[in-house]
Amino acid sequence: MRLVFLGPPGVGKGTQAQRLSAERLIPKISTGDILREAVQKKTPLGVEARSFMDGGKLVPDEVVIGIIRERLKDPDCRGGFVLDGFPRTVPQAQTLGSMLGRTQSGIDRVLNFELSNDELVRRLSGRRSCPDCQAVYHVEFNPPKKPDQCDRCGGKLIQRSDDQPETIRKRLEVYQSQTLPLIRFYGDQGILTSIDGSGSPETVYRRVMTAVGK
Ligand code: AMP
Q: Which of 87, 164, 190, 200 falls between 20 and 30 A from 113, CA-CA?
């Protein structure tokens, strides 16, 4: 099962991808997570990516394509994967298709998560995450048991630097202009399913199950 989770920042696709990955035993591959880890470790990739990410802009195509090209060679990807946050531009999607080379897109199904802009801003501005294990919380909707502490590993929770109001606005704009065209790209190939992203993670997961088959 080769899946792509598409949708604006804050829609909850990462949370859904995480759960599906755990239950189906297929890797969740998030370019955002890989880039954040590189930034944290100050690797050359991280140094290059940081200014784009902090400004709410996309990291250049050739950089993220290079990341995915390497990651998909790992043996754990042979039985399928769920891509979260990649592709984000039409050139990325086209390159992914030629990399996988099975069908036009190389992908079995694309789930497109949808939510109103107001709700996206609420979700993003209350989001907290664990830099150690990548668990994600929300101050209002899914708070940790102890304030600012990860339930899973005890790490200190942080607010992502790109979850500040001005950067959120920029990321939503970038999504509209650069990522939205992918809906047409995958829609034309007949592999796109829309998922209502509203409601609890549990409710949304049930919709995901219906879309991918139990
Ligand atoms: P995310 O965690 O998916 O919201 O990604 C955080 C940031 O990482 C984005 O705002 C971009 O700066 C960068 N990024 C992640 N995935 C991609 C991608 N496929 N193409 C370009 N930039 C990306």
A: 164
